[in-house]
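Action item from last week, closing it out:
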Amino acid sequence: ERRRERRGGENGDTGDDITNFDEMVSIAGVVAVREGLAKAGQRLVVTAGFPFGTPGATNVLRITQVGRDTR
């Protein structure tokens, strides 16, 4: 079972349709803007579990700039 956990300043989501890491970072930026959590040019911290679909395997952290790596 996949888990979503939210703490102060964090938003979690399961990406059932994500197939690669770059796509995941791109979608995270789009969602952050859509939800009003970030604006273009701001930094965004993205965490993920890799390989995708492995519950409890959060082992990747990427700091990206919204709009740079997002669609």
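Closing note: The helical segments are 21-34.
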